[in-house]
Request: fold
Amino acid sequence: MACMAAAGLQRPRRVSMQEHMAIDVSPGPIRPIHLISDYFPHFYPFAEPTLRTPDLRPAAAPAIRTAPQLQPDPEPEEDSDDSTVLGTLEFTLLFDADNSALHCTAHRAKGLKPPASGSVDTYVKANLLPGASKASQLRTRTVRGTRGPVWEETLTYHGFTHQDAGRKTLRLCVCEDPRLRRRRRAPPLGELRVPLRKLVPNRARSFDVCLEKRRLNKRPKSLDTARGMSLYEEVEAEVAGEERGRILLSLCYSSQRGGLLVGVLRCAHLAPMDANGYSDPFVRLFLHPNTGKKSKYKTSVRKKTLNPEFNEEFFYAGLREELAQKTLLVSVWDYDLGTADDFIGGVQLSSQASGERLRHWCESLGHTDHRLEMWHLLDSAPLQFSH
Reply:
């Protein structure tokens, strides 16, 4: 009995709730939570890319130990909702105002996300927006077998003016090679858009920008979509205004030959007229009123292109005073075998014109042996002469 009484005295002591709550069970100081932007830096076209380092030293407890910083992986291996996982694109833009050209040099891409097909054969496609997508589309060659392709290739838009820089945006897409991907209309691996109004003429500017997902717009409710048709469409499909393209002409009154030399140099961003998305353009010249057999000329045809280069010159004899009273009609056509040619656009130069067309005509005939080259937008409606 004495042993049992002694065992009863040895029972474990119960801890009251008040005593339990008084025990210090704190695991240590609470560390601040990192923001997602601390691990995945965002780059903007017109700001230097910076990685914000959070201040992990609270004023009340300066001795707190912080967790090590995570560095962004240039080639992430796993999917993520963040746009930076699509990779980055390095390129340089130069607005050559003296020659009315925009040069875009695609340097390289880094950390591209592998597509579903597993292909890593990529190229860069460029478009000027707003405008016809096919007319302003340029692309680099394809680089195969790498998630960090290096192109070092320059794409040039001829006929790019100050007015274009003020209202247009350059869209760059990194795409799979269409000859190698299984899906015919596969979306690009990533895209980005650069407003061109902030470019400084004749000064190159380099960019290193994160790629984003393709932007889609919801179709208007007024459109009766068929079953199975997507309710979304690409933003660039909406074109603000109809653009027919532009033409580069040179005019010079030659004192030695006694007449006007008209040079048809090139066209840019012509409207596509054929089912394949291209045109077979050529240019017609007509000096009105008709003074002889040599009042009409025609260039050769350039096959399957929206940016043809002609470099052909034609001559109209006459005194400067007589030519100044005439009208030069320049029209661009799409050649069709066996059917009537399609009118693409035209421009009329005369003393009755206005703006750049009037200045080009008057300055060329007002000076002898002075060659003047200028770009002109094409009108969509056929021109008519005033009698």
